[in-house]
Amino acid sequence: MTMPKDAASGRLESQWDDARARGMSEPELLLYRSNLLGSDKRVTNYGGGNTSAKVMETDPLTGEEVEVLWVKGSGGDVGSIRMDGFATLYMDRLEALKKLYRGVEFEDEMVGYLPHCTFRLNPRAASIDTPLHAYVPRRHVDHMHADAIIAIAASVNSRDLTRRVFGEEIGWLPWKRPGYELGLWLEKFCRENPEAKGVVLESHGLFTWADDAKDCYETTLEVINRAIDWFEVETAGKAAFGGEKHGSLPAAERRRIAAALMPAIRGMVSKDVRMVGHFDDQPAVLEFVNARDMEPLAAMGTSCPDHFLRTKIRPLVVEFDPSNPDLDATLAGLPASIEAYRQGYAAYYERCRRGSGSGGARRRGSCRADRVARPRRRCPSTSAVPCGRGP
């Protein structure tokens, strides 16, 4: 799969190949659609989002035709998923779960019922997003975390902005932790708005649907493109992030500085688990790290849980003056900065962790203590340096 021709403009181009899709079964079309969507990180990050299809299959015990939900399994990635990455569940059993639901205070117990709905003894575990797909009364459903959509979903005036960009075609639902209750909310929305093509979930992402695999894929792209187009018009001629504060250092100089900093950084953040680092100085990164508002914006943290899983709640900004670069001073200040970040994140974890039933910590993403020492560093004029587990 190739990057869309107009990637430079930000718009998404359909990569659907009718000749290739011809003759595919419904599960194969789901796989094809999923891989296409996941191939472009402007649609969703690695591991983010999920897809589903409701398929008629033969029950191995009764020989009768039954409706089966195929949905991306827990922990999978739509861009690289294969057929064994989908969970399969009887739709009639998923419908029967409604009789067991005791209310939002008990929705965590519903996760334990999902294995009882498994079709053909499929070992792939169903994710907590399964009800969100099951109860949308359409055959094909996409749930994506496109940056252009997150920019709307995470805004203070998210609801009004959604209406302004999409009119009546795309609805809006307030923040709700993914799970059984949100699945019922989606079903209610669909029943009350049969003409809607999808819904923006506040601070979360996008759901779109259709009764045909290709239509669902192209609806997803269409909705994201409308958001992209709207932002291009609204931001035309305006300085991003408060305008430029620093000019970028030459590429060779940036890499020389990174080569000096990264071994030290890796050692400091590998206190508990060995880490690997990645140096990123692509234009979009440089635009941000060179901006006047970089520090206050970085301190605000990520805009949605999907991003948080990759970057922690906020990056560590390293003091660095590109007009008078002093590597020795930067290196000398790193230990204190990283330790302060470590302590700050540990305090955040302790402040936000709660029992599994409350959902307080889950709203922000995983807060595992063994991941405290994983800041993402940003140096003005230089780069972003994310770190993660490695050999």
In short:
The chain is α+β, with helices and mostly antiparallel strands and 391 residues long.
Which structural category fits the helices and strands? alpha+beta
The tally of helices reads 15
Poorly predicted runs: 1-8, 356-376
Q: What is the strand content?
A: 5-15%
DSSP strand tally: 12
The biggest sheet amounts to: 7 strands, mixed
Q: Mind telling me the C-alpha Rg?
A: 23 Å
CATH superfamily of the largest domain: Class II aldolase/adducin N-terminal domain
What's the CATH topology name of the largest domain?
Answer: L-fuculose-1-phosphate Aldolase
Order of helices and strands: HHEEEHHHEHHEHEEHHEHHHEHHEEE
Overall pLDDT, averaged? 88
Rough outline: globular
Overall tally of domains? 2
Largest sheet, spatial ordering of strands: 3-2-1-4-7-6-5
| Second CATH tier, the architecture of the largest domain | 3-Layer(aba) Sandwich
**Gap between N and C termini, in Å?**
29 Å
CATH top level assignment of the largest domain: Alpha Beta
Instruction: Provide the helix percentage.
Output: 25-40%
